[in-house]
């Protein structure tokens, strides 16, 4: 689509439309519009996939305890095992490894960044993804593959939630208490609790009153729908009236399956997603054999990050919607006369390119969706990176199914839930089942998502240390919290398009640091206050990011449209020179061997 003629665009009219659509969706309650799964709503968080098994509380000691069994825990655990740390314990609230991919088993779930760069440790495990964008069952199997190959099951604690972590200054260990009565110690702790594991529900009046069946997409009820993640035909829905509330990335993937399965499917939409071409296809084993030479996945990661970051590369190996954004902007910038290569001109080029791309995506809706009124309502009126871009080859087509009805709420959302169904724009839609595709908590306080607050030196809580904004070195270390590591994107590369790349590099770094502490016989590793402050000052020189700007329609990329305080920039900032530069810097920092900014005591 990038080579089609550029549409004629009235920029000022488009800006006015974007502003009008944003205004419709602004809410004073921001993230507070979503409900925590407590009381009558607690059952929405139950694990429907793995039976709960009673066990005796654990009271022992391990060298490294990691909280979270998703990609962060898996890649860090693997690197620690490679470094010779045999007793690595991963604590996970799910019934197995996988994190987001343990919970997300809805029909059609797949990665939206190419498998070759999204699935970590492919080279180490020798796995070839089956598709350019692998589906959930394959990704979940890969998580189990990593855990099995690196011996991470041996000390793991599943269906277990951490309730408290405290630094014991005298013993130089962390004491960890859990929901299962465990109380054990660890020399080092790591945290990869991430934002994509705590399901949220929209605060719709009457949500507890519905007499039919309901569930959240991250706890898909195949016992009700029929089918399973590998074969989601859902034959039990053939005579059912089903409502799905939410039209973000999850709905884009599962609506096509529901449209084929349900007697009637009502898709309730507050804000349409931008849905471009996915073009998924199988990976050719012969081609993979040619490219899978030693170091191949690192090279692919670097190529994607460089292209997606707008750097000039000879080739774009991934060549997807993410890199096209940058490719199109880069091409336009290179066409500027030498005397016009200014920041203002380049930002204008970026804006023009974005207008053109979004107009193409809106025209795609017109082309694919047969009903003109439905097609118009499926058009996204905002910049492409205001919300996470979606790519799919069957979502728009699903609205051509006679069973499927789009219920557009013109930005207001569902009004209320009744005993019989869903009310939107003054009309009640009676349904047998409500599916909440409302996503996970992202913008809430990290302690609310994690369920605990770590206490470091002198009893200071991490929430206190971060009360005026997150403070770290490299997004990994916090002063006052010795032998503790954080695995997440912020204050590092902050690469949102491919989060596993952030986790992979953090895991490598932690493995090297722990091995260094072992070789030095050091009891503690801690970032100095000076190094932490210097890193914060560097981060604050970063330009405002293009993703989720303050003028965007509300969503989790921009704090649901609510203004951020001056300290909040620290909670969303990355390395000023960009993601690829950060990864290069971090590699040089750890390869140098003196680990500048850390103290080994």
Helical fraction: 25-40%
- Strand count: 20
Structural class, please? alpha/beta
- Number of helix segments? 19
Radius of gyration: 24 Å
The stretches of 5 or more residues where confidence is low (pLDDT under 50) are none
N-end to C-end Cα span: 57 Å
On the 0 to 100 scale, the average pLDDT is 91
- What is the general shape? globular
Q: What is the makeup of the main sheet? A: 6 strands, mixed
Binned strand content: 5-15%
Please sum up the structure shown.
With 601 residues, this protein is α/β, with parallel strands linked by helices.
Protein traits:
601 residues; alpha/beta
Q: How is this structure best described in words?
A:
The protein is an alpha/beta fold and 601 residues long. The chain has 19 helices and 20 strands. The strands form six sheets. Strands 2, 3, 4, 5, 6 and 18 form a six-stranded mixed beta sheet that branches. Strands 8-17-9-10-13 form a five-stranded parallel beta sheet, covered by helices on one side. A three-stranded antiparallel beta sheet has the order 14-15-16, with no helix packed on it.
What topology does this entry show?
Elements: H1 11-25, E1 34-35, E2 61-67, H2 71-82, E3 88-91, H3 100-103, H4 115-118, H5 122-125, H6 136-149, E4 162-168, E5 173-178, E6 183-191, E7 201-202, E8 213-216, H7 222-225, E9 241-245, H8 249-261, E10 264-269, E11 275-276, H9 285-291, H10 296-308, H11 321-334, H12 343-368, H13 372-377, E12 390-391, H14 395-398, E13 404-408, E14 416-417, E15 421-424, E16 427-430, E17 433-436, H15 446-450, H16 462-465, E18 484-486, H17 499-520, E19 525-527, H18 529-539, H19 579-592, E20 598-600
Helix pairs in contact: 2-17, 11-12, 17-19
């Amino acid at each position: 689509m990038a080579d089609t003629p550029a549409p004629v665009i009235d920029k000022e009219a488009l800006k006015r439309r974007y502003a009008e659509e944003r205004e419709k969706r602004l809410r004073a309650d921001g993230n507070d519009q979503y409900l925590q799964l407590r009381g009558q709503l607690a059952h929405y968080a139950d694990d429907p996939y793995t039976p709960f098994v009673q066990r005796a509380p654990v009271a022992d000691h391990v060298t490294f305890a990691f909280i979270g069994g998703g990609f962060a825990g898996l890649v860090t655990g693997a690197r620690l095992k490679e470094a010779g740390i045999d007793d690595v314990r991963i604590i996970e609230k799910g019934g197995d490894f996988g994190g987001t991919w343990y919970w997300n088993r809805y029909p059609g779930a797949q990665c939206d960044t190419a498998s070759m760069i999204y699935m970590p440790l492919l080279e180490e495990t020798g796995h070839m993804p089956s598709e350019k964008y692998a589906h959930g069952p394959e990704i979940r199997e890969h998580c189990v593959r990593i855990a099995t190959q690196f011996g991470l099951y041996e000390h793991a604690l599943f269906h277990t939630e951490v309730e408290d972590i405290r630094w014991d200054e005298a013993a130089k260990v962390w004491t960890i208490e859990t929901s299962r009565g465990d109380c054990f110690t660890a020399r080092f702790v790591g945290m990869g609790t991430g934002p994509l594991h705590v399901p949220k529900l929209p605060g719709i009046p009457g949500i507890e009153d519905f007499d039919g069946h309901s569930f959240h997409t991250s706890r898909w009820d195949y016992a009700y729908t029929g089918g399973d993640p590998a074969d989601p035909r859902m034959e039990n829905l053939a005579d059912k009236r089903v409502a799905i509330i939410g039209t973000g990335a999850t709905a884009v993937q599962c609506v096509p399956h529901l449209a084929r399965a349900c007697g009637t499917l009502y898709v309730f939409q507050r804000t349409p997603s931008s849905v471009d071409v996915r073009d998924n296809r199988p990976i050719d084993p012969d081609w993979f054999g040619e490219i899978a030479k030693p170091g191949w996945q690192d090279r692919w990661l670097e190529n994607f990050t460089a292209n997606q970051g707008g750097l000039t590369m000879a080739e774009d190996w991934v060549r997807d919607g993410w890199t096209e954004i940058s490719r199109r902007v880069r091409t336009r910038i290179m066409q500027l006369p030498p005397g016009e290569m200014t920041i203002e001109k380049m930002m204008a080029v970026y804006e023009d390119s974005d207008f053109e791309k979004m107009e193409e995506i809106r025209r795609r809706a017109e082309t694919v969706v047969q009903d003109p009124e439905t097609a118009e309502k499926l058009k996204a009126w905002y910049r492409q990176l205001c919300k996470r871009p979606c790519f799919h080859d069957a979502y728009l087509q699903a609205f051509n199914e006679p069973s499927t009805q789009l219920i557009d709420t013109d930005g207001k959302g569902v009004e209320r839930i009744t005993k019989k169904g869903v009310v939107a724009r003054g009309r009640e839609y009676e349904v047998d089942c409500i599916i909440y595709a409302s996503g996970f908590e992202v913008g809430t306080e990290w302690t609310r998502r994690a369920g605990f607050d770590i206490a470091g030196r002198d009893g200071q809580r991490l929430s206190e240390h971060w009360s005026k904004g997150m403070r770290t070195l490299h997004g990994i270390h916090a002063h006052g919290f010795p032998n503790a590591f954080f695995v997440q994107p912020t204050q590092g590369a902050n690469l949102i398009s491919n989060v596993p790349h952030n986790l992979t590099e953090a895991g490598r770094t932690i493995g090297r640091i722990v091995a260094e502490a072992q070789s030095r016989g050091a009891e503690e590793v801690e970032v100095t206050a000076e190094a932490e402050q210097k890193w914060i000052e560097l981060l604050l020189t970063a330009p405002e990011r293009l993703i989720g700007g303050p003028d965007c329609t509300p969503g989790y990329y921009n704090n649901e449209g609510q203004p951020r305080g001056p300290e909040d920039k620290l909670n969303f900032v990355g390395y000023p020179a960009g993601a690829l530069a950060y990864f290069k810097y971090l590699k040089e920092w750890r390869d140098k061997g003196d680990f500048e900014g850390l103290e080994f005591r």
